[in-house]
Specification:
The structure is a homotetramer of 240-residue chains. By secondary structure, chain A is an all-alpha fold. Chain A has helices spanning 3-31, 36-62, 68-76, 85-106, 122-143, 150-164, 173-179, 193-214. Chain A has a single domain, classed as Glycerol uptake facilitator protein (Up-down Bundle), CATH 1.20.1080.10. The first copy, chain A, has eight helices and no strands. Chains A, B, C, D: This is Aquaporin family protein.
Chain lengths: 240, 240, 240, 240
């Protein structure tokens, strides 16, 4: 795949992901009549299902990272060339903000407005560390043992992580930045974003270190001439 | 597959799809005691699960479009002969109305009665554009890279789209027309249907253009003598 | 597989299925505080998930019918020898009642007590016709085109059918009889059972006729020497 | 895989499993405003989805038992060497307590505090017997017929079992011990733990006996030189 196609896929995929997260949060909060558990359940199911579709539809093009932490971890493992890390991250962030604006447009909200949702403190930072640690672990573990199933494993993991962390598991620096521009159910105060991102990167580093020991890298020739693109952790079910 | 079998599959599949959407909406509204979030959650889960079953059971016959926007996009990509577009769309619409009547019969409602549910305005039209854009993107992306998984990707996408769009994602002109004949949870005023359909077709055109660039068409001989029927975006898991 | 193993699988599978349906209904009603939509949603998710597990764990032994209507349809298609129809149905019914008793034991209820839940009238009979028609259609369609995926398609279909029919989709004569012995959420008055069963058998007959035309039978040698047992509509993903 | 990697996988996997179960229980109870059905539904969906991810990410390393009852059943079937049973169980228990502490840290609770949640009596013991019987049955049935699908079958089974048993289906001695150290939604009084564990082991023994008869063991050479590790009941989809 050409780099232009891959960057388009990352931008578009991250945009739709944010549209799903923020849009379903708005819908859920409006309809739930104040029952936050029901609202978060709807937000969770929409996000998990959306991730299945998005990773399946974009995975074979760009690897379907949609997440700077994933791109950094893949580059660390030499699955993504160092020269492509910055372009990947830039388009992910641009896509994320575009997706927030798209969602706001669908619900008649301003394109961007800073969140007032407080998300801070050690419990939430620890939550983001754990959430990102687990996400990177799922990706490394599955992509090194059964890559065709990774899209389902990632979506299932995030579905669980919305509930087992007190932060509802952002686990993604681009998502964190863009959600700071949405004063809705899914928002986070801009001032709280850096703490989340630091915790996410620490969780990414810990998971990459541990899981690369746990799953030794496949032999180099496993991808030579193969059909798996670099960084593709969402390979198709029907390919060997 | 003969054309008669394929048209039967499209009519029957679209009928059951509408029975699922409208019937589960009626059940959800009756039981939910006014909690619209719970009602929409039940409607969503029923629709997503129903789509999995329907695309799997009819996909290898007709491609399991159940949707004029999908048929038009497939014809644009020359996966469906031009001469079959009109028959496909006609039986989809007939099936859709039959499904609404079947659902009404299951809940003791009149066979048809015009909806009074207002669904209009730029936010909802933009929602339908986005919803259909994403649906066509999922279908093109998956059918060109891992077709056996498309049924799950489409169902997951619609599950998410019920929540991340303010229109609850009709994304289907035949469904839109038929839901205008149901004054229930899933209905739409007849006068609002044209706006939805225009937005859906625009989203279809944008997605077909973009995703055909993103995913270059497979080589022509990929389907020569193969087991994949034209327009089949729901190929089976066990076929290579 | 020997007949004794197959009958054990049918009895045990049907027993666990009834334990899931009745047990989750009791739990859901007790916890839901009168919100029937939430109770039915929990009942639905438990049943759908339970069916996935049960068909996967017993499918390669007995075909995982758990349902006299399925056994009759399979015998009609000559996938089950005529001599085995009665034994299959007898153990399904015995298993169904054992499962109801097991569930009652788990919740401290009497082993059996007749239901007072009224389920009758044309709308509900039409619902049972439609529900069983669709179930048999899913089974024939998937087992003739992509058998490894049938367990998921059947479970997804039932998940939808709990909501899009006014009867909550029994679609199974053995289940209907056994639920008459449970005066709980999932029950049905004994006097209402015959109407349901007649509608189910009519739906089965209509679907078997239509779908056998829609999907011509595979050539006879497709199963000669193969790994697919007669009546196995739940073949494994990893087998070709 | 080396034993150190396998024990790390068991410890880490069990830890994340407990973090999911306990953490999502805390979140669900806090948000649900007293509606226990909604809380248990969220707890269920998080646990089921988490299990999918965990078994997929660790299955090819250690078999993804996370459960002394599973390890004992696998050793009984000679899939795990006798000398490894104790190390497996020890790290499972250590991991389970670590996961509870991790969850408590994410929600600002004490690291450990004894549960006051009464779970006792014949109905709940019978529930734990049935729950573990079914779990072991799912694992043996799927791992002997279609191992690549086992992760989904196990997760689906537990999703159902949260609802169809009055105990919410612990079905795991390590999980039972660790949940005794959490005075939250998912807790169990320490004094009630032994009764649960006895019932679980009885259910394990009954299921191992019955299902080993139902599914004759595969021929010895089926794993000689193959890609399936001993005890691996979560083999990948893409492997033959």
């Amino acid at each position: 795949m050409t780099l232009s196609r891959r960057l388009t896929a990352e931008a578009l995929g991250t945009a739709i992901l944010l549209a799903v997260v923020v849009g379903s949060g708005i819908m859920a909060e409006r309809l739930s009549g104040g029952n936050v558990a029901v609202a978060l359940l709807a937000n969770t199911i929409a996000t998990g299902a959306g991730l299945v579709a998005l990773i399946l539809m974009f995975g074979t093009i760009s690897g379907a990272h949609f997440n700077p932490a994933v791109t950094l971890s893949e580059a660390w493992q030499r699955n993504v060339p160092a020269a492509e890390v910055l372009p990947y991250i830039v388009v992910q962030i641009i896509g994320a903000f575009a997706g927030v604006a798209a969602a706001h447009g669908m619900f008649g909200e301003p394109l961007f407005f800073a969140s007032e949702h407080v998300r801070s403190g050690p419990a939430q930072w620890w939550s983001e560390f754990v959430a990102t640690f687990g996400l990177i672990g799922v990706i490394i573990g599955c992509s090194r043992s059964r890559p065709s199933i990774t899209p389902f494993a990632v979506a299932a993991y995030i579905t669980a992580a919305y509930w087992f962390t007190s932060s509802t598991s952002f686990a993604n620096p681009a998502v964190t930045l863009a959600r700071a521009a949405s004063n809705t159910f899914a928002g986070i105060r801009p001032v709280d974003a850096p703490g989340f991102i630091v915790a996410q990167l620490a969780g990414m580093a810990a998971a990459t270190t541990l899981f690369c020991w746990l799953y030794p890298a496949p032999p180099a020739d496993a991808t030579v001439g193969g059909t798996v693109a670099p960084g593709d952790f969402a390979d198709s079910l029907e390919k060997p």
